[in-house]
Amino acid sequence: MSVSFLSRPDLPNLAYKRLKGKSPGIIFIPGYISNMNGTKALAIEDFCKSLGHAYIRFDYSGVGNSDGNFQECTVGRWRKDVLSIIDDVAVGPQILVGSSLGGWLMLHAAIARPQKVVALIGVATAVDSLVTQFNQLPVEVKKEIEMKGVWSMPSKYSEEGVYHVQYSFIKEAEHHCLLHSPIPVSCPIRLLHGMRDDLIPWHTSVQVADRVVSTDVDVILRKHSDHRMKEKEDIQLLVYTIDDLIDKLSTEVN
């Protein structure tokens, strides 16, 4: 599949790849600084091809092949990106698969588009994560970050060993926090999390399960998986989960 671009007036063009097929379609929402070519995104594409289901993967503005300046990106802007893909590229009902930060954004999309989003699958769901982690820092460290305007956050998932997160990004993200009150999402939700995740504690998925108003929620913990959840068994669990939800939704329709 070649890369297509969604043109948007006043907003950066978004790069995406789309597989046409049956409903419900699947949309993969990547993690922080991740693009549409990751292991999970490609594995889901292969699975959707084999089933004949529609599938979309895309790059956030400022990331990968999409236009935009990464330094100007915010959770709010990326939320708009997800909604643009749902509104202007996707056809019919959609299952959203959100990885890490994408798990936070999938909940926002489900709140904003309840008619179109029929199920959610979170992988190491990072709801409120950067804000929570920042708030846990000592006061003097927070003040220093505010002065510098940048938080150099250690991470083994970055080539440099740190992510340089803008202070303005964290402050803007505060407006999108969800765990402080009930989350008005009522569709089926599956939350997969590795118990060896050293970036986003697996308790976050349990908190999400507790906060959403949906009664059809499963949290599935893998004892030896880390944050990325991209080993063979992790991918297998992910595609089984998608398959199971497709079956469930098809049965409900019929």
Automatic annotation (TrEMBL):
Lineage: superkingdom: Eukaryota
UniProt xrefs under InterPro entries: AB_hydrolase_fold, ABHD10_acyl-thioesterase, Hydrolase_4
Key word Zinc present: no
Keywords per UniProt: Hydrolase
Pfam families: Hydrolase_4
UniProt domain Serine aminopeptidase S33: residue ranges: 26-130
Family classification: Belongs to the AB hydrolase superfamily.
Alphabetical list of PANTHER family matching this protein: MYCOPHENOLIC ACID ACYL-GLUCURONIDE ESTERASE, MITOCHONDRIAL, PALMITOYL-PROTEIN THIOESTERASE ABHD10, MITOCHONDRIAL
Name of the protein in its database record: Mycophenolic acid acyl-glucuronide esterase, mitochondrial isoform X2
Organism: Ceratotherium simum simum
